[in-house]
Design goal:
By secondary structure, the protein is an alpha+beta fold. The protein has helices at 2-12, 15-27, 45-54, 123-138, 149-158, 161-170, 189-196, 209-225, and strands at 56-63, 70-83, 86-93, 96-101, 105-114, 141-147, 180-186, 203-207. It starts with a helix and ends in an 11-residue tail after the last helix.
Length: 236
Amino acid sequence: MLAAAQLKLDAALPADLRARAALVRERFHLDAPGWYYDSDSVPHLSTVADTVWKQQRIEVRYRRWRAPTDVTRRLDPHGIVLKAGRWYLVARDYRGIRTYRVNQILHLAVLAEHFERAEDFDLAEYWAAGITEFRAGLHQGKATIRLSPAGRNRAAELYNAETIRALHATASPPDQDGWVRAVVPIESTENAQSEFLRLGADIEIIEPTELRARISTVARGLAAIYPADQPGQASS
């Protein structure tokens, strides 16, 4: 469907721009999904792309996460965004500009109505503002941690920019073993547990106590499975 959408967009471009677009594709390829994630199945992507280009109004049956889950919306498609293998439609409805997952469109009808784009709308600015708001809402708590030198190096590869900024801003001077103490944002206790376990023995959780207790429980379970004095023995 992506190929079909690209063909439609190419056909609508003037000849000189079409040649320039082809040249770019010869030299740049975007493979957005991660290694262990398949991109969305988006049967309506080609039609959505066509209506964005032609400024044509659509009516969709859309499935959202909250009740009522299936709703009908009339939309003025303003743009398409590909984020981490997922396609999003940015469109104007009766409430203003909103974002819709393209793969959650259950049914789409193209209406015989054209619309005028919002004059002050900038797709990149809208998306950047939405990402900032989303990230701000993710982190509802904080954790006090200790990191080894190896832990600090690995954290820079594993964690997002906001966590790394907090780590640098709050890190104490290293102790005699090179460990530092810092305060970092966390999304939830459950999420923090899985994230911090990625650092193994190179991190110690000081607070919150609930998170420290959960990590301690996992550590005791691992010690029981891998006793130091019985290497190589499988449990029966």
